[in-house]
Amino acid sequence: MSRAQTERAHLCDALLSVGPAAPTLCEGWTAHDLAAHVWLRENEQLSALGFVVPALKQRTDERMTQLKRQLQYVELVELIRQGPPRLSVFGLVPGADEAANSVEYLIHGMDVRRAGGLPEPERDGGFLDWAWSRVSKVAPLVLHKAPVAQVLEWDGRPDASVRAGRGNRIVTVIGRPDELLLYSFGRRGAAEVRLVGLDEAVAALRA
């Protein structure tokens, strides 16, 4: 199985474990909302534009509500488990599912598990190396607007680090690669990382 397929399965398992009304780390979203988001993103790209285009948010919210009425929660999760439609961009373009969905499903799976108190699933020996490869590419892109520069460091592997942002104030963020991904995507309170730096710089980052 590809990494995207593996993380998709872990996400679906987590969704079924917690139930539709369970909270997630996505503010304001239940597990049912998250499942609807995932399904729309893969099956109705036009309806999903509101996830990234604020002007279309109301339309997307309305479609999510409609979808949750149309499909039972378990049915919706099992449709997600089957994978992207063959005629979607994820099904037609070789490598698109892996490139666009592997980290997406890792993060959303953690959204469900962390909010629900579930442990992380067991993964293969190459998982952390893969996750670090994603950190090194993603972190400089998503953290560049932070008030202080950040150096993300693989805990126990100080040779594996990547800098995001500029400036003289620097905070080192230390954790496992998957935790660093969770941190990079805005789930800072749930990510198991530690911040090392001058008190003033750490305070500015946390604020």
Q: H/E element string?
A: HHHHHHHEEEHEH
Whole-number count of domains? 2
Tell me the fraction of residues in β-strands, as a range: 5-15%
Unreliable stretches (pLDDT < 50, length at least 5) are none
Distance between the termini: 40 Å
The residue fraction in helices comes out at: 40-55%
Structural class: alpha+beta
Shape verdict:
globular
Oligomer: single chain
Tell me what you see in this structure.
This protein has 207 residues and is an alpha+beta fold. The chain has 2 domains: 3-116, no CATH class; 127-206, Nonspecific Lipid-transfer Protein, Chain A. The protein is globular, with a radius of gyration of 18 Å. Strands 2-1-3-4 form a 4-stranded mixed β-sheet. Helix content is 53%, strand content 11%. A hairpin with a 2-residue loop joins strand 1 (149-154) and strand 2. The model has no long low-confidence stretch (mean pLDDT 93). Helix 1 runs antiparallel to helix 4, helix 2 crosses helix 3 (57-70) and helix 7 (127-142) runs parallel beside helix 8 (177-184).
